[in-house]
Design goal:
26% strand; 36% helix; 3-stranded antiparallel sheet; alpha+beta; 6 helices; single chain; 192 residues
Length: 192
């Protein structure tokens, strides 16, 4: 399954990613005002199918790094993704992964007594390990009817054709929507 997907990051990082055609920074990051990008499903590259949502992530990155925001597009090929949706969701996957990892039901004492972010990190690593053991190569998560997350566990072979979709100054969002900013960028750069 090949899909065009998006990721929002700061402009300088986007230039680096496009130039190298690969990601080098992990998903988990801390932004201003206590906002955190969590790697809920373990180490991998987290992508979305929607430019508006990618722009929200780009805003957080740009604000923290005092940079322009960039939404980048890429092709994602997942051969055997775990499909999550309303009937089998993140909580179900977490439960199955923990039961697989600890079949006797004896979770380590510190599993639930740690800081929430550390708990997310631990359970995310277990979910990733479980999915890889079950021969899945990533996740396609239908959060709702309008929003889909993708997680690539092998980005070097699954992600290709990385390019900048559009760039914006975060202060311009006060006067225009993401779609208007994207259209302006596309129009301005159509001959490049």
């Amino acid at each position: 399954m090949m899909s065009t997907v998006y990721r929002g990051i700061a402009f300088n990082e986007a230039l680096h990613v496009v130039n190298k055609q690969q990601y080098e920074r992990e998903e988990r990051r801390y932004f201003l005002d206590g906002v955190v990008a969590k790697a809920v499903f373990g180490e991998g590259i987290y992508l979305v199918h929607d430019t508006d949502m990618a722009a929200q992530y780009a805003f957080c990155h740009a604000e923290t790094e005092n940079d322009f925001a960039a939404v980048i597009s890429q092709q994602l090929t997942l051969d055997n993704p775990m499909i999550l949706h309303r009937d089998y969701n993140e909580a179900d996957l977490r439960k199955d992964a923990l039961e697989w990892k600890y079949p006797d039901g004896n979770l380590p004492d510190n599993m639930w007594q740690t800081e929430p972010m550390l708990r997310v990190e631990k359970t995310g690593a277990i979910m990733r390990e479980y999915l890889l053991h079950m021969k899945y190569d990533g996740i396609k998560y239908h959060v709702n009817n309008e929003f889909i997350y993708y997680i690539s566990y092998f980005p070097c072979t699954q992600i290709s054709d990385i390019r900048i979709d559009f760039i914006f100054d975060i202060h311009d969002l006060k006067n225009a929507s993401v779609q208007v900013l994207r259209e302006r960028y596309k129009l301005k750069n159509q001959y490049l």
